[in-house]
Amino acid sequence: MTIDKRDSDGSGSPIEFRLDPGSGVPTYLQLVQQVEHALRLGYLKPGDQLPKVRDVVADLAINPNTVLKAYKELEHKGLAAGRPGQGTFVQATLRQVALPELAELRRPLLTWLVTAEKAGLDEDGIVALFTNVLRDFYNRRETRAPETPRSETPARETPRNEIPRSGKEGVA
Amino acid sequence: MNVIETTGLGKAYGKSWALRDCKLDIPEGHLAALVGPNGAGKSTLMNMIAGLAVPTEGTVTVLGGYPAGSPRALDSIAFVAQDAPVYQNLSVSDMIHLTRNLNRRFDSDYATARANELAIPLRRKAGKLSRGQQSQVALTLALARKPRLLILDEPLAALDPLARQDFMATVMTAMADNGVSVLLSSHAISDLERFADYLVILSHGALAAAAETDDLLADHRVLTGPADEADRLAQTLTVVQDKRAAAQAHLLVRTADPGDPVPPGWEAHPVTVEELVLAYLRAHRKTPSAERSMVPR
Fold first, then answer.
1. What confidence tens digit (pLDDT) does each residue in A84-143 have?
2. First to last CA, chain A
3. CA of B218: which chain A residue's CA is closest?
4. B100 exposed, middle or buried (CB, 10 Å; 0-12, 13-18, 19+)?
5. A63: which chain B residues are within 8 Å (Cβ-Cβ)?
6. Nearest chain A CA: its distance from B201 CA (Å)
7. Single pTM value for the model
8. A-B contacts (CB, under 8 Å)
9. Which of A36, A165, B47, B255 shows a CA-CA span of 20 to 30 A to B37?
């Protein structure tokens, strides 16, 4: 075996995929998530090339249709675009919420966490509840409006039955 | 275009049926994995598709309608038998030379370049190569014929993990470069999620399921809920596997529509390829007659 020296040849993409076989996440989705992650962290910028299908296939020994499916999904999300004969390129970046807005969003969440803890939930319980509600929220939105998955509708339905009514709310 | 099409296909050896009533339509461009226990009829099916065995009943055509075994079919199919046999006493370059002379179409340059890429010494006798290298040589000779359908019978069984990875990388690269369709039989079901985008599950000489992997996964789910409701629920659904304890039940079910609502009080979990294949093989072992109805379409 020769020593792996794929990354230094300067051709193509700034990123390289890896697979987590134990994650239970379908392979194509792992590729999609890794591109999104790289976009969020700034490894990928608009105009950058995604790894060529053939290179991914040769590198990871996965089905080329899986890579094509991942790239199609990224195109569908508006994050990438195929250029005939050249490959697939990053088209947009994932919108990051600005820092002041993030702080704004943190506050009610912290208040809620205090309430949840008072009600007797431990950390695992809180994670389980949050994950559950989050999944419900997106599932419901998907079944309601499958045509507009990207529109940012505000969370109108708060999981009120989950929040116990206590007299005074804790302040974070 | 369907790369493999069978109707009512069956093969008997003497009085016992190795395979019966097999209906398949595999579209081109896939890597289809043929899975099932030993004696399920995998090799029998592959041999009939390759034209190496004659069906007892039914028909099999390849590459959009050519009868299996016809000159057109033979010309476009490459078959690598189990354990990737090579001529032990011939050197790699002798084998390339020999295979070129035995075939109407053969890309010697591809074969030589591929051997160099894999660092396989051309002058070495095949018998002196490692198992992984021997299987790569057999695969390279098959691919150099530029087939449109590549059939691989248990190619991974004798290989170590790295050799498996290298072997499959060669197969997948050929798919990406030339669009060759692949039919592969394997026991390594934990690897299938990465390789196979089409699954053919055989059990005891009958087809248990055949469809695109993603469709099969989307059409199945595990429902977890109270055991005392399981019977009622099972009547309304197609249950592939039923696991129960005193209080809790896990039903692996096939749903007509992935968007079907989950029954109240039950949780739905997605299935993995491995779970799904094992469930079908187990179900089929227990009640072979009832399972016939589960063959999609």
1. 989 999 998 776 666 677 788 889 999 999 999 999 999 999 998 988 888 888 888 777
2. 57
3. A26
4. middle
5. 31, 172, 175, 194-197
6. 19
7. 0.78
8. 54
9. B255
